[in-house]
Amino acid sequence: MKKSIFFITLLFLGSAAFAQYDTTAPYFKNKVLPSFSLLSLDSVVFTQNVLPENKNTIIMLFNPECEHCQEQLKLLLSLPEVAKTTNLVLTSTETLPKIKLFYNKFHLEKYPWICIGKDHKYFLGVFYKPKTIPVLAFYNKQKQLDF
Fold first, then answer.
1. For residue 102, which of 21, 38, 64, 128 is within the disulfide window of CB 3.0 to 4.6 Å?
2. Residue 8 falls inside a structural domain
3. Percent of the chain having pLDDT more than 70?
4. Predicted confidence band at 11 (pLDDT cuts at 50, 70, 90)?
């Protein structure tokens, strides 16, 4: 009898271990610009509501020390049409001093269409579930994910 109970218990635990759960990133399910909260370089919280209306939006998850992230930003800065039509939101989970160094290195104060901040709630990392960085998400003027 004890062996039967042990076997049944083991069977239930084993099946629970192999149960599938949904690993789909939330941005595939909800294709609307996410409600985010970022900590600016002067430690003021800002949200998606500060973005100018009627413009496309690119959210870029980056690491200030990542060479690929730096190259991606250089590419975006080199495209004049991006500045005219797009809000660029740069977000990292690194420390504010590291983000500030990145900001200064690229003289981002010259680009009013760029918002940069720390994802202090770690929301966007969970929302996009990146495997690598940089991660870029493109949203159209209607705030819908644009593939």
1. 64
2. no
3. 83
4. very low
Check: CB of residue 85 under 8 Å from CB of residue 52.
no
Task: Tell me if residue 136 falls in helix, strand or coil.
Answer: strand
C-alpha–C-alpha distance, residues 139 and 143, integer Å:
5
Q: Which residues pair with 61 in a beta bridge?
A: 91, 135
Whether 33 contacts 47, CB under 8 Å: no
Closest CA to 116 of 107, 132, 103, 101: 103
What lies within 8 Å, CB to CB, of 111 at 6+ separation is 77, 83, 88
DSSP 144: B
Nearest to 133 by CA among 62, 84, 73: 62
Label residue 63 exposed, middle or buried (CB < 10 Å: 0-12, 13-18, 19+).
middle
What is the C-alpha separation between 57 and 32, in angstroms, rounded? 11
User: Model's pTM, two decimal places?
Assistant: 0.82
Q: Please report, for the domain that includes residue 90, its CATH number.
A: 3.40.30.10
Residue 5 within a domain: no
pLDDT band at 130 (very low <50, low <70, confident <90, very high): very high
